[in-house]
Design a protein that fits this description.
- The protein is an alpha+beta fold.
- The chain has 18 helices and 6 strands.
- The chain has helices at 6-16, 22-35, 69-79, 129-132, 151-167, 169-172, 182-185, 187-191, 196-203, 209-214, 237-241, 244-247, 250-253, 264-273, 278-288, 300-307, 311-317, 320-327; strands at residues 44-53, 58-67, 82-91, 109-116, 123-128, 176-177.
- It has a 3-stranded mixed beta sheet with strand order 1-2-6.
- A hairpin with a 4-residue loop joins strand 1 and strand 2.
- The chain is globular and about 55 Å long.
- It starts with 5 loop residues before the first helix and ends in a 26-residue tail after the last helix.
Length: 353
């Protein structure tokens, strides 16, 4: 099929579907042709995720084709059978549906009803917040799922996507929205904290390093030394100073400080973003604004928070030549003007936030 030129195929493999095999690229091309969605406008895109392969008994990267909820609406409208929708509605643990969510607590679920002219009743999609919200292993919510961000909008999009897919299976089967796949994107994050405990033995320096290396558990033995305080009644003040050494264990309390450790790929992505000027970062946010998860991002930390699960594709897109274009306020692929710089575009003295 001649949907794309060779140049466009190479661009898709490097920017939109990095890591995709030739067969996966053909599948992505077929989905773009079937749905009529444009990958260059970010209406549809491919995400590579690690999945367990039973045949090889190891994790391999496989492609998931995603689109935005706007893409679902476009496909439904083009079918000629879309007759509108009701909702979204939200409910709490009590199961009482409301057409607006005003509570300070997070909703338990969202519901959307989609109408297809071929059916005599609406198709219902219900999404449970606990099943779709992006969160770390400790339960901390991420990105727009956090309180104070847009958790009600995110879960409503999941419910709408579910309803659309049931109402138009011929058009939407095999397609998922970014909001529906949020949980899959943070599985890598759950593995990162494993690296943190390894750093703790390094923090136990001096006389206690050998004991810590011999047995991690015996480190509490300093607690046996405090049993010596009863002796100060017999021993002079010099011995009182000896127990002060265990008190040096206080630095261990500071060990949790390294908690926000970043993966090497995420750290490299942070470094490249720091090469952007204020204009460059604004242009980057505009270029990414078509992706639902990035639509409300305004800060570097917010950007990296969403990229943390899979930083490699974003890292590949921020090459030196692309950074140079962004710092001029240009789109890195098309060269279109995204931001009109009021000052020299590559001025590192202009911080961004």
């Amino acid at each position: 099929m001649a949907l794309w030129t060779d140049e466009e195929k190479n661009l898709i493999k490097s920017q939109i579907a990095p890591g995709a095999t030739d067969n996966e690229l053909r599948l992505f091309q077929a989905q773009c042709q079937r749905t009529g969605l444009d990958p260059f406008s970010r209406q549809i895109y491919a995400i590579m995720r690690e999945q367990w392969d039973a045949a090889s008994r190891q994790k391999v990267k496989k492609m998931t084709i995603q689109t935005s909820i706007d893409g679902f609406r476009v496909i439904a409208q083009r079918s000629g059978k879309y007759a509108g929708q009701d909702g979204p509605y939200w409910c709490g643990p009590d199961g009482e549906w409301k057409d607006v969510w005003l509570s300070d607590e997070l909703p338990a679920a969202a519901k959307v009803l989609v109408y297809n002219r071929d059916f005599d009743r609406p198709i219902i999609g219900i999404a449970l917040f606990a099943e779709y919200a992006a969160k770390k292993q400790d339960g901390t919510l991420l990105g727009l799922w956090k309180k104070g961000e847009k958790p009600t909008v995110m879960i409503a999009k999941c419910a709408e996507a579910l309803a659309f897919r049931k109402a138009f299976p011929n058009d939407l089967s095999g397609l998922y929205t970014a909001e529906e796949m949020s949980q899959a994107d943070v599985k890598v994050l759950d593995q990162e904290p494993v690296a943190l405990p390894e750093a703790q033995p390094v923090a136990t320096r001096g006389r206690r390093r050998a004991a810590a290396a011999a047995a991690p558990e015996p480190t509490p033995q300093p607690a046996a030394e405090p049993a010596q305080p009863p002796e100060p009644e017999v021993i002079d003040a010099e011995t009182v100073e000896a127990p002060a050494a265990p008190a040096q264990a206080a630095p261990e309390a500071a060990q949790p400080a390294p908690a926000p450790a970043e993966s090497p790929a995420l750290a490299s992505l942070r470094q490249r973003i720091e090469m952007l000027s204020q204009v460059g970062f604004q242009a980057l946010l505009i270029a990414y604004s078509a992706i639902p998860d990035f639509a409300e991002v305004r800060t570097v930390d917010g950007f990296l928070d969403i990229c943390a699960a899979q930083p490699e594709p974003h890292l590949a897109g921020l090459k030196e030549e692309n950074i140079a274009k962004l710092n001029q306020g240009l789109h890195p692929r098309t060269g279109a003007v995204l931001v009109q710089p009021a000052a020299p575009a590559n001025d590192p003295a202009q911080p961004f936030g």
